[in-house]
Amino acid sequence: PSMKLLDNKKIVVQNIRDFVWCPCENWIAYWQSENKDIPARVTIMAVPSCEPISAKNLFNVNNIEIFWQQAGNYLAVKVDRSIKNKKESENVFEIFRLREKDIPVENFEIKSKVMSLYWDPKGPRFAVILGELGRTDVSFYKIGEKILPIGKTLTNKKCNCIKWSPQGQYCVLAGLNNISFDGVLEFWDIGGDVPTLLNES
């Protein structure tokens, strides 16, 4: 066995803050912070060519989180952005459609504070946990021509984690490592027009 440096050279990415491998393709998504007049930037790079296949400039960025779908069809970039003259920040998502021509990117805003995002590993759906620990809501969305909600937001859920079935469609809303949540598990079917509760334990 042997190993070698690709093209016998290093790649320098200035102001890089984080990167995440695609689970099923040799792609890396990384983001660079703002630097003076240069905006923050999210780039998806193919390996071993190390050539970018998509990129997006972003402004007024506090932080960015990167979420790959397991099948590699989508990438969600959560952008925490400063609002001028306000102490709060807003949550904006940039959704990359990796399997479509020219990799279109859709801007998607959620008004409530987003704790985390969880992709359906097989289908064009994702879930988000909203609010603060102790009082959380859960919303589901489906990607079609546009990104649309699946039913209404589920309110007052004892949930700080969402686990999807590896086959997709079904998920568990879980309250883990939190005494106030009492280990609540809710099993949901997200395959229809509205989320359907299967059982609660």
Structural description of this entry:
Helices cover 0% and strands 54% of the residues. It is built from no helices and 17 strands. It has strands at residues 16-21, 27-32, 40-46, 51-58, 61-68, 74-82, 89-97, 105-110, 114-119, 125-132, 135-143, 147-149, 154-157, 161-164, 170-174, 185-189, 196-200. The strands form four sheets. Strands 9, 10, 11, 12 and 13 form a five-stranded antiparallel sheet that branches. It has a four-stranded antiparallel sheet with strand order 1-2-3-4, with no helix packed on it. It is globular and about 55 Å long. The termini are far apart.
List the defining traits of the structure above.
201 residues
What is the percentage of strand-forming residues? over 45%
Helicity level: under 10%
What global shape is seen? globular
- H/E element order: EEEEEEEEEEEEEEEEE
Number of helical stretches of at least 4 residues: 0
Report the average pLDDT across residues: 91
Runs with pLDDT <50, length 5+?
A: none
| Total DSSP E strands | 17
What structural category characterises the helix and strand content? Answer: mainly beta
Helix-strand layout with pairing:
Elements: E1 16-21, E2 27-32, E3 40-46, E4 51-58, E5 61-68, E6 74-82, E7 89-97, E8 105-110, E9 114-119, E10 125-132, E11 135-143, E12 147-149, E13 154-157, E14 161-164, E15 170-174, E16 185-189, E17 196-200
Antiparallel strand pairs: 1-2, 2-3, 3-4, 5-6, 6-7, 7-8, 9-10, 10-11, 11-12, 11-13, 14-15, 15-16, 16-17
Question: Would you summarize the structure shown here?
Answer:
This protein is mainly beta.
